[in-house]
């Protein structure tokens, strides 16, 4: 049962920063079966490069105490600029191959492969609506059980996904890029200002919303868990970012997006997820938490047990 309710916000204050983490190993090879070299190999390399550019949280060495006032720690860093710049270069590199990649992935032999088809469906659903459902569930269960870590994980993961969706929705409308399936010879460079507003979803190709959601959730969850289990961060990050990358590839396999749509979506999702976590660390009592997903456990109206009330309403102290 879902109802609007007012409840004091969950306050999380940490005193330690996560330890440095390792890079993410290759995980995109499974998206293209076989050992053929050529276009698919080069495309896989570019997508893998983008995945490697999604860094795991690194804020301090050896879990050192955070002696800098939270309000003065920068939200945007040089590392963020480097990440965005690298994603931009990767996108520019792969854009000329958008059309050829789309044609290769629509090859009947690839499309008829049951393993690939089913795997694409699973990772697609995990990205959307899975990221929202899982995040909301973690938050509700955490609030019910008094587990602040779980509640924080669900809350900030969901915030990252929603914020990423807001950004990507605006981008889709403004860019007006045609999806690969619109015509048999759709031009991958077919952008038109604000056409997404009039043309509908057929012109919502750029950037990929599923990819944004998947990478936003991956970045936020990796950042949150790094505070509690820094030694496990490389494994958690590898699994989450790898799954997010496969979600993006699945959208290309389903002929819904160009490769460049996926790379830009990965960049947006990664940065948004990292910024949400960093913002909550630097501003533990912030307005976002006050407004987002207010929840509480209350007696059921019928008198038989308890229910969780959720709502997008301001919370009072």
Automatic annotation (TrEMBL):
This is Phosphatidic acid phosphatase type 2/haloperoxidase domain-containing protein. Residues 153-277 form the Phosphatidic acid phosphatase type 2/haloperoxidase domain. It comes from uncultured Gemmatimonadaceae bacterium. Coiled coil: none annotated. Pfam families: PAP2. Gene3D superfamilies: Phosphatidic acid phosphatase type 2/haloperoxidase (1.20.144.10).
């Amino acid at each position: 049962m879902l109802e609007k309710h007012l409840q004091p916000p969950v306050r999380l204050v940490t005193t330690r920063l996560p330890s440095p983490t390792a890079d993410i190993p290759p995980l995109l090879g499974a998206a293209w079966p076989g050992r053929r070299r050529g276009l698919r190999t080069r495309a896989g390399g570019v997508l893998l490069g983008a995945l490697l550019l999604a860094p795991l949280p690194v804020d301090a060495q050896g879990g050192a105490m955070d002696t800098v006032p939270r309000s003065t720690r920068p939200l945007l860093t040089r590392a963020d600029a480097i990440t965005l710049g690298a994603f931009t270069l990767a996108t520019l590199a792969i854009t000329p191959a958008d059309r050829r990649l789309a044609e290769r992935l629509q090859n009947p032999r690839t499309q008829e492969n049951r393993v690939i088809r089913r795997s694409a469906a699973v990772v697609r659903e995990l990205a959307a609506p899975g990221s929202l459902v899982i995040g909301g569930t973690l938050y509700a269960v955490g609030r019910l059980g008094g587990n602040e870590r779980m509640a924080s994980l669900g809350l900030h993961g969901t915030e990252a996904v929603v914020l990423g969706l807001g950004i990507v929705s605006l981008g889709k409308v403004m860019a007006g890029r045609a999806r690969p399936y619109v015509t048999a010879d759709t031009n991958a460079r077919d952008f038109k200002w604000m056409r997404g507003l009039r043309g509908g979803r057929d012109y919502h190709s750029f950037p990929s919303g599923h990819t944004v959601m998947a990478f936003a959730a991956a970045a936020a969850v990796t950042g949150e868990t790094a505070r509690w289990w820094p030694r496990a961060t490389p494994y958690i990050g590898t699994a989450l970012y790898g799954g997010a990358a496969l979600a993006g590839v699945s959208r290309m396999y389903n002929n819904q997006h160009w490769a460049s749509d996926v790379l830009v979506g990965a960049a947006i999702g990664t940065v948004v997820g990292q910024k949400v976590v960093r913002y909550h660390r630097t501003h533990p009592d912030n307005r976002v938490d006050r407004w987002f997903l207010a929840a509480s456990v209350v007696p059921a109206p019928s008198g038989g047990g308890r229910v969780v009330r959720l709502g997008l309403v301001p919370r009072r102290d």
